[in-house]
Amino acid sequence: MRGTQLTKRTLGRTDLQVTPIGLGVMQFSGSAGFFRFMFDDIEQSQMDEIVRAALEGGINWFDTAEAYGGGRSERGLSRALQHAGAADQDVRVATKWMPVLRTASSIPRTIGKRLENLSPYTIDLYYVHQPWGFSPPESEMDAMADLVQAGKVRTVGVSNFNAEQMRRAAVALEKRGLKLAANQMQYSLVHRHIETNGVLEAARDLGVTIVAWGPLASGLLTGKFHRDPEALKNTPFVRRRRLRSRLQASLPLIEALERIGKRYDASPAQVALNWLIHFQGDVVVAIPGASKAQHAREAAGAMKFKLTQDELADLDHISGQLGG
User: What distance in Å separates the CA atoms of residue 29 and residue 38, rounded to the nearest whole number?
Assistant: First the structure.
């Protein structure tokens, strides 16, 4: 690969510095909790290997959530970071409060469990996971601001908020003297709705970073399933059904990723991630997941080169024809 591109970025208008690629650890929840039908169980030793590979590749931040196995992912991440000898000041950890069937009063009541699960690591970024709570964004942001002022979390983000909800959250935090750090949204070469539904525009206006979840579209953009459709049999049902329906339509994009990747000795996944963290300037960072250490190494490698403007535009054009 050419050169190195490990320069950290600032999340929103906060003081939080992260690498353009982080690591999402939803897979650490295994078959427990809210997403139990999406992933197979994973042993702690495997979590350790994944986190160590990410750290060795230069990744400095990790994304988890209360909903990922009811805290199982948080605990697995904390243990893995400790086993890797990672100091609190050298890593950044994000987690999320799940608002389903709750009000904002749940935020202060449940933060103790988040802190316990992730101890001894600081919660650098605390998100409202979905805009589905019984309280409005203003009340949720007030509760989050209380946590910041109490020193329990460093910064505040939202996840899956539309443009209006994000603007309301940002205004509410401003009244408390805080900045909204990030909005975590689905974004990839095959899922580009934030470019047209106002979310990306609002993020630019507000100075909020977009944290792209699903940046490889559940593995579709690795090209693995195009090369070997039989591999779909080894994926959980929910992911398998989604992937199978998109294989044929996405083939021209995979071929372009492979063609460009040869110029950098990079995989299709690395090219797809590189496009994501550069096409919109520095507004977007990404949190690919990993179920194996090699996946984490590959994700980290996506930061070690930079696509040209022509290559970015080429992928933009091909992706745009898919209608994602």
Answer: 10
Q: Which pLDDT score, from 0 to 100, does residue 41 have?
A: 85
Alpha-carbon distance 17 to 61, whole Å? 9
The string of pLDDT tens digits covering residues 177-233 is 999 999 999 999 999 999 999 999 999 999 999 999 999 998 899 977 676 665 556
Q: Is 127 a catalytic residue?
A: no
> Which range has the worst mean pLDDT, 170-179, 218-227, 268-277, 286-295?
218-227
Let me know: does 288 contact 256? Beta carbons within 8 Å.
no
SS (H, E, C) the chain: CCCCCCCCEECCCCCCEECCECEECHHHHCCCHHHCCCCCCCCHHHHHHHHHHHHHCCCCEEECCCCCCCCHHHHHHHHHHHHCCCCHHHCEEEEEECCCCCCCCHHHHHHHHHHHHHCCCCEEEEEECCCCCCCCHHHHHHHHHHHHHCCCEEEEEEECCCHHHHHHHHHHHHHCCCCEEEEEEECECCECHHHCCCHHHHHHHHCCEEEEECCCHHHHHHCHHHHCHHHHHHCCHHHHHHHHCCHHHHHHHHHHHHHHHHHHCCCHHHHHHHHHHHCCCCCEEECCECCCHHHHHHHHHCCCCCCCHHHHHHHHHHHHCCCC
Catalytic pick among 68, 121, 126, 187: 68
Give dist(CA 195, CA 16) in Å, integer: 25
Confidence of residue 38 (pLDDT cuts 50, 70, 90): low
Tell me the C-alpha distance between 278 and 274, whole Å: 6
- Cα–Cα distances (Å) from 178 to 33, 44, 154, in that order, read 32, 37, 10
% of the chain surpassing 90 pLDDT: 83
* Measured CA distances, 43 to 46, 152, 216, 236, 291 (Å): 5, 29, 23, 17, 10
Which one has a higher pLDDT value, 36 or 174? 174
